[in-house]
Specification:
The protein is mainly beta and 107 residues long. It contains 1 helix and 8 strands. The protein has a single domain, classed as Protein Yojf, Chain: A, CATH 2.70.180. Helix content is 11%, strand content 56%. It starts with a strand and ends with a strand.
Length: 107
């Protein structure tokens, strides 16, 4: 299923992924060089989601997790301000497409 509305994405995160143990893969690309990417992987529970406008006419998506080792993990990624292809969801796997990052949440 394609997610194209911000409200639909927030509802899906709250209803399907909040307070559950998830596998998280966060990939971020360096704007200077497309070859340079950073990948972080961990297991954790999604505890908070916040979406705010930023100064670049985009949206900032803040995801807070409690990792398996009880450490807090904060991921802030910019997503399109327009309601376009924001994410895909199928078989318990959510891919959220940011402007310079992607996060994959799996139940």
């Amino acid at each position: 299923m394609e997610i194209q509305q911000h409200e639909q994405l927030l509802r899906l995160l709250a209803d399907e992924f909040a307070k559950q143990t998830l596998s998280v893969t966060f990939t971020q690309w360096d704007t200077e060089s497309e070859d340079d990417e950073e990948v972080a992987q961990f297991q954790g529970q999604l505890t908070e989601v916040k979406l705010t406008d930023n100064e670049f006419d985009e949206k900032d998506l803040l995801l807070l997790f409690v990792a398996a080792d009880e450490e807090s993990v904060e991921i802030l990624m910019e997503i399109p301000g327009e309601e376009v292809d924001l994410a895909t969801y199928a078989d318990g796997k959510l891919n959220i497409f940011g402007t310079e990052a992607e996060i994959v949440l799996e139940k």
